[in-house]
Amino acid sequence: MTFAAAAMLFTGCLKETFPSSVMTEEQLNLSSNALAGMSRASAAVFNRMGGSDDAFGYPGIMLWRDSMGAELPIYATTYDYHSYYAQCQYLGNWIVQQGWWSLFYKIVLNANLFITAAEGHEETDVLHYLGNAYCYRAYAYLDLARMYEFFKTGFSDLDAEAESRGIYGLTVPIYTENTTEEEAKNNPRAPFYQMYRFILTDLDKAEELLDGYTSSVCNEAGISMVYALKARTWLELASRFDSTISDTADSDLQTMISHESEYPELSKMGVTTAKECYQNALKYAELAEAYHTPLTKEQWYTPTTAFNTAQSSWIFGMIIGAEDVSGSWDSFIGNMSAETTYGTANTLYQGFRMIDAALYAQIGSSDWRKNTWIAPGDAGVASAYSKYKTLLPEDEFVLCPAYTNFKFHPGSGDRDNYLVGNVVDIPLIRVEEMYLIAAEAEANINGLAAGCEKLKDYLNAYRYDEPVYSTAAVYDMSAFRNEILTQRRIEFWGEGHVIFDYRRLKKAVVKGYSGTNFPESYRYNSIDGYVPAWSTIYITSSEYQYNHALDGKNNPDPSGYGIKWSE
Fold this sequence. Notes:
This protein is mostly helical and 567 residues long. Helices cover 42% and strands 3% of the residues.
């Protein structure tokens, strides 16, 4: 077994876990206590990927991804370190894109190392750690597949370039614990039908290992995380094979079916229709729901713990410990919270992270989430201060512009000491997503009325006061999908995964419109019915220098491919 290939491709990764690039015989025979430490080290890989103000691990990527959508207007742009995708520039062969690739493959690499090290162990706790490793690997590959596969953008020259390179349907290279050095040097991008079967195979293994197990910490997988990832994966496939969403649905489905007998080491999909994929998404979403309850109004709004401390609804999350804090600005809280005296999103630097004005206008008047952001009429008004649950004193509240968020709070409510305020938990999967997956799947299985009823039941039980939420304006499936996207954008604002919904539903990102609160240089729109060009990640040259199969099979550089809006 060799990991030299992995060391070559992911320079420096192994040093975070082991002192050498190839595992020694001693390291392959670790005790269960050592394996526990190794599992914790794997979780820590999510936390950092560099040393600059935009490179603070997976939370930094969450910010980048929300900057791709119409999610994160910023008040003052001077200190926006996540502007490139919002401004449609520097999206090709740059260090930012290299950071994405490196972080995800570090997660993969550490999972591979653990899978090898755990071989032969039968202790219950080690088997749980092994299930955790399979979940991490599936999580990483699902994100990679959804970020790197090229779909039509509506820009004819960009789409033709992708066609000429033969990259449609290709995701990313798969590296497992069995990949040899020679294989790694010429490892092609996996076709989607192989990649999604690989992900589901990892999740099948994790399901067996974690059956009945619930984790006591948010960054370790339990059985509900397996179910949640399966729900995400099956919804992704359902959307892909749905001919009312994608014009390549039928050909993609037939391609998947025709390759079902290949890769005997992988689980078979076992489906022949989009409806069956929706049925699987519904099944696993409801299984995950059984282990968690949605956030209550009190949990959502308690300023010392809301969205910085793992709660009942969290299926998976990150734990940023004191040892992970290296600075005040290069942190999720320093870039997202209006309440800190450090970082950029505060009254000093005015990099306030806001909600899109058009999205805010769609939040129902009795939706209690609405006071997460400052209403336009309340900005600068001292008498409105009591409406908002914030750590800010009144004299600082009045300095915040309309739409400023009070969703994310510094750890322990400490506004001033970044060594405390940046020590937070960050949600990556919440059970609320499962309810929305279930509603969307239900509509595609049993009809629009059934889906609307499921969506109403969820929102009225967990998100609305009187008057209750109504779907009276949802008159067809297109309108229903728009409503699902709207609810996802409200619920998961700032959590970094709504761009995947724009992509799978082929919905336009619209930042330029009359009344927009996006800065002038951010007002790019994408084309409805296509994937936003800037949301597909470029593979940097440092990767295809090592893996020659990537040479000539890269995604086109999407820099500048957006429709600039001006009044």
